[in-house]
Amino acid sequence: MLLSAGVGGDHRILGLGPPWQIALGRKPLLIAGITLCALGAGSVSLIPEGAWVLFAVLRFIVGFGLGAAATIAVPLIVEYTPTRHRAPF
Question: Whole-prediction pTM value?
Answer without folding.
Answer: 0.68
